[in-house]
Amino acid sequence: MPGGSGPVADSRAVILDRIRAALGSRPDVSVPRDYQRTRDFPSVPDLFAERVADYRAIVHRVSDPVPAIREALAGKRIAVPSDVPSSWLVPSVTWLHEPLSNADLDSCDGVLTGCAVGIAETGTIVLDGGVAQGRRALTLLPDYHLVVVRADQVAGTVPEALARLEPTRPLTFVSGPSATSDIELDRVEGVHGPRTLEVLFVG
Fold it and tell me: Domains in the chain and their CATH numbers?
C-alpha cells in the first residue's frame, strides 16, 4: 500500500534506491532531430496510388468520385458520417447516417468516408475524426470501407503528413485492409477492421 510501512514499503524503498544508484548522475544528452523530412519523388500522386495498392487495397484514379461511388455502392446499405458531402449520397444506395449503434454498423454492407491526410511514401491513409470521417468505430466495425482521398490531401513523407495533423485528435492510420498473422505467418484479414479497403483517389 502506497505510503504504508512494513516489508512491502521497505522493499519498494530498496528497489527505488537501487534504481537511483544505477542511474547515477547523467549528462544532458541532445537528441538529434535532423532526419530527412522531405524527399523529391517523381510523382507524389503516382507513388501514393502505387503504395496503397501494394497493401492489397483497391485503388481507382478518378476525376469525380460521384460516378465511382454510384458504381461501387449501388444497391448496398452504407453507413456515412453525419457531415458527408451531399453530392456523394447517390440515390441508388441506402444511406445510414450517424449516429448509429454498433449493431447497425456491424450489419451494414460498408462505410463511406473522406480522410484527413494520405502519405505517399508509406501508402497510408490517416483519419482524424474530422469532416466526412466520423468517429473511429464507424470505420472499424463494417467489413468494407470506401474512402475518398483528394490529391491535395496527400503528403510525400510521414513528417510532412504529421505536420498537417493535430496530435490531440483521435488519429487512425490505415495501411490497407485490416490484417494480422499468427506465428506461422498465416494471414487473416478483417480481424481489427475492414476486410476490404477501396480508395477513390481524386485528382
Answer: 40-202 (3.40.50.10420)
